[in-house]
């Protein structure tokens, strides 16, 4: 039985087995809430790198979208939050950015340091404050595909707002809430933690959150949403997996991405 964070309410848990496009979901009774205090990705960080380098979802869907939303990065300092194995960091540095990254997983941070020697990477759990970063010290914040692993998202987003320059921007991507709901069923509005076993056998716990929750948490943390995209895969995605490419063109089962600006302090 996994440990949860103390002080958080207990909610129902579900186990979902994702096999290709098939999904089997089974309620497992009450689980202690809090996603997971241990770094969930540590045990398969190398496999994740191997997968995400060229995968349809990462290389031909999420990364092109978030990089587009970030815009011009040359000469700018980008905070890569939950940086994973450094695939974003590598691209950002190639485009002329200075990159500071953080991830909860020591193995992910090791892979980042190997991949992007010019970057500065910290092992850091988003449950903690970013005490090593001063106020208004970064131009852009990238927070790709990790929001759903954070229990106290409002505090995390407030921290990101604190370290962002007033003329900066936050770009985040997350699982599309409609896709989550289609996979798991139940009430779309029920905020809960699920446990999934992905097709590669990776077991992950994460939050299911309706779209309004993310919009409200951004608002409460002091951000104004500038753009919200329901991305389409790039044409190259068809070469990786034609069936999934065609499905993503029709159905909201992938990710969404948001560009948000710091709201002026009143
Ligand atoms: C799906 S991967 C995304 C990695 C990278 N952003 C990308 O898109 O290639 C999710 C990442 O979030 C990190 N993560 C999960 N929970 C975290 C937490 N509480 N604090 C910091 N990083 C976390 C994981 O270790 C993992 O590297």
Automatic annotation (TrEMBL):
* CDD domains noted in UniProt: AdoMet_MTases
Q: Which GO terms describe its biological process?
A: methylation
Q: Where is the Methyltransferase type domain?
A: 79-172
Question: Which key words are in the record?
Answer: Methyltransferase, Transferase
Q: Name one GO molecular function term.
A: S-adenosylmethionine-dependent methyltransferase activity
Q: Give the protein's recorded name.
A: Methyltransferase type 11
- UniProt source species: Salinispora tropica (strain ATCC BAA-916 / DSM 44818 / JCM 13857 / NBRC 105044 / CNB-440)
């Amino acid at each position: 039985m996994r440990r949860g964070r103390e002080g958080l309410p207990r909610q129902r848990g579900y186990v979902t087995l994702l096999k290709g496009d098939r999904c089997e979901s089974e309620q497992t009774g009450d689980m202690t809430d809090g996603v997971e205090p241990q770094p969930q990705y540590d045990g398969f960080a190398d496999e994740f790198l191997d997968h995400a380098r060229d995968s349809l979802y990462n290389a031909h869907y999420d990364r092109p979208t978030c990089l587009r939303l970030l815009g011009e990065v040359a000469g700018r300092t980008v905070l890569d939050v939950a940086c994973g194995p450094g695939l974003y960091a590598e691209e950002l540095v190639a485009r002329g950015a200075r990159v500071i990254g953080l991830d909860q997983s020591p193995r992910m941070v090791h892979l980042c340091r190997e991949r992007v020697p010019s970057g500065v990477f910290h092992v850091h759990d988003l449950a903690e404050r970013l005490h090593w970063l001063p106020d208004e010290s970064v131009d852009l914040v990238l927070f790709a595909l990790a929001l759903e692993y954070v229990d106290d998202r409002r505090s995390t987003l407030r921290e990101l707002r604190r370290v962002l320059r007033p003329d900066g921007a936050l770009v985040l991507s997350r699982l599309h809430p409609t896709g989550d709901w289609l996979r798991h069923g139940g009430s779309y509005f029920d905020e809960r933690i699920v446990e999934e076993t992905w097709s590669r056998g990776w077991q992950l716990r994460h939050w299911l959150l309706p779209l309004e929750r993310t919009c409200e948490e951004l608002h409460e943390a002091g951000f104004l949403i500038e753009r919200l995209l329901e991305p389409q895969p790039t044409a190259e995605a068809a070469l990786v997996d034609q069936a999934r490419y065609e499905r993503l063109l029709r159905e909201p089962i992938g990710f969404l991405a948001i560009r948000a600006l710091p709201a002026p302090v009143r």
